[in-house]
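Subject: complex prediction, re-run

Hi both,

The earlier run crashed halfway through, so I resubmitted it with identical inputs.
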Amino acid sequence: MAVCTRRLDKVMCSIRLLRNVKHQNERFLSTSLCRLALESDGGNPTTFTPPSKPVIIDKTQTEASLRKFLSPEFIPPRQRTNPLKFTIERKDMIQRRKVLNIPEFYAGSILAATMADPHATGKVNRFVGICIQRGGHGLGATFVLRNIISGQGVEICYELYNPRLQKLEVLKLEKRLDSNLMYLRDALPEYSTVDPDMKPVPHSVTGEVPVNTTRVRMRPKPWSKRWERPKYAVKGIRFDLYLTPEKMEHAQKWAQPWLEYDMLKEYDTTELEKRIFAEVQAEMTK
Amino acid sequence: MRLTLQMLISHGRVARKMGLGPESRLNMLRNILTGLVKHERIETTLGRADEVRFYAEKLIDYAKKGDTDTKAMKMANFWLTVLLYHRFFLLVSLSYSDPVPSTLFCFCLPDFYEYSWFFGSSSYFLFSLWFQEKDLIPKLFKVLAPRFEAQPKGYTRMARIPNRENLDKAAMAVLEYKGNPFPPLQPAKRENELTLINQLLKGYREEQAQQAAAMVESQ
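This time it finished cleanly. Structure:
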């Protein structure tokens, strides 16, 4: 604050000088005075700020070639609630999406979320991390971002439709072998570190989302969860380095092979998805 | 295991508890469903019939997809299996130390899937033997699926029957696939022709027929 006042004083002085000089003799006004005034601003020479790059919207991409993506929180769960609840919720979700652009992302993509925070400097909080989980349905949909900051693993659970969320950027769009990457907590830190100043990697709007097939190396056992058990169905861990084949077989004792044939557990969402996708697209383009 | 409140409350749970656990429940339902596909009309307890009804209809939905569909074939292979438990003959064979007579094995062709627990020193083996009903799979795809092609749902019919005569007096039900060759469960009620209204209507219909015949003759 003192610096500002000092600078302000200097500026005021220089302006008064200039004004006096102007009054006395305009011919003596030269660039040197201007330079002096500039230098008195803080001692740094002003850097050249290039103009912002224009955003190119490619209108040649047809709707048919664009990737059809319906965010998973739009699909209602199998419940006995009145479908009216879901229609109203969808309306609210679309209204929020018209204000804030919520991009397409999956578990394994690297995102940067800026949240409004009254106690932060600049009133916004930016967090960059890898998305390890997408959960919830409707307006309560959440996603968890994980990053390692100065050696400490940090996970923040953000709500997609939180009004405090100012901006959501996808820095790298990709999928992984699993839809839930909670095992990164027990993996080596190199797999969860994301550079906070990472530049966005350009991704195509058409075609398949790239799948990152890295199989992660883990810290020594014990892990927070027994990831080798078939209930978690983890494909992205290199079990062969940490578990003997006997242990893997022992883990298969918890397998429930009848589960895939149990028709009661099936929930076919294809028709529902098509209908909701058409509805959402129509509303968004209005 | 974390004891949550959700475990105690059963709101929204659709699957009944049957047998010794989820695997046992599915095995029991598999047996009943195989019997239903084989005989097209079976008699079981009310609860079991109600549970099997859902699976019976879903199996027909899968069968409608055709036998070229891999998922449908896998489902049919899984569901049309009969599970048999044999404890007794093993106990007997070990105590007599005789070779097991072949007659005991002849009617069950093992697709030998698993053998379960071996109880320490005692010679008591719990075996679970499966045999696949090979001829029911073509019956499902070639007979039952075409029969219900026109219907979107509602392939089964359930009717309650008097309670079982045993000590348990269990509530019984009959479950059948519609279009089976047996006589109907509830015979079709025909209206009584001798009531006044029916007689008057019969007279009216006859009069109409006479008038129509007279018109045709005069033309």
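The longest helix of chain B spans residues 196-218.

- K.
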